Amino acid sequence: GEHRRTQPAHRTLGPPWPASGARRWQAKGAQGFGAPVAFDDALLVATHGDGSAAAVMCLAAETGSERWRVPLRDADAVAIVRSGDSVLAISRDAERGPVDPDSIPSGGRTGHVRAFDAATGTLRWSRRVPGVPLGAPAIAGGTGYFETIAGQIVAIDLGTGRVEWEAGTEVPSARPLVASDGLVFAPGLRAFDGTTGAVRWAA
Q1: Which has the higher per-residue pLDDT, 65 or 99?
Q2: Distance between CA atoms of residues 43 and 13, nearest Å
Q3: 61 and 4 in contact (C-beta within 8 Å)?
Q4: What is this structure's pTM?
Q5: Is 45 helix (H, G, I), strand (E, B) or coil?
Q6: What pLDDT, in 10s, does the model give residues 152-167?
Q7: For residues 87 and 62, is the Cβ–Cβ distance under 8 A?
Q8: CB contact at 8 A, 61 and 38
């Protein structure tokens, strides 16, 4: 996607307050900000579109100056999570006219997972995900496990963007997945093998 470096801006987002409680700076976004993610001396933030493009942006924590911004023109909602020296942007694609509800699970809506270099904003990879990812993934051993509103778990290699496996959860849930000791636990309860996606047990 488009990638540009920008000038300092203004709106309500800032680093931890100093002892006096005085505001250090404000930063301006689009419709609003998601929860920021710390990276070295910077804050990584997703903005939500208001008719303009949603975006992922990087602000200097000390001054609020904008280091880089990447518009996501096909997204109308974005969440971010840090993974090593990458920032993952998990987005819901904007609706573009009529869709065939039978063509893609979840009534035709899709999403994307993108990995950006956290320091520069350079796109490392992008993966389209049918069914819209539900928020931040569970991360273990270099793999991100995403649940979608189509009731699927999608395991993605966070270094390359390659889909390693997909499996059905039966009942989609907004509650987060948990990855531990080689297993992925989905609300339900169901445990999946983290490497293969095979169901190990179900309660």
Answers
A1: 65
A2: 10
A3: no
A4: 0.77
A5: strand
A6: 899 999 999 999 999 9
A7: no
A8: yes
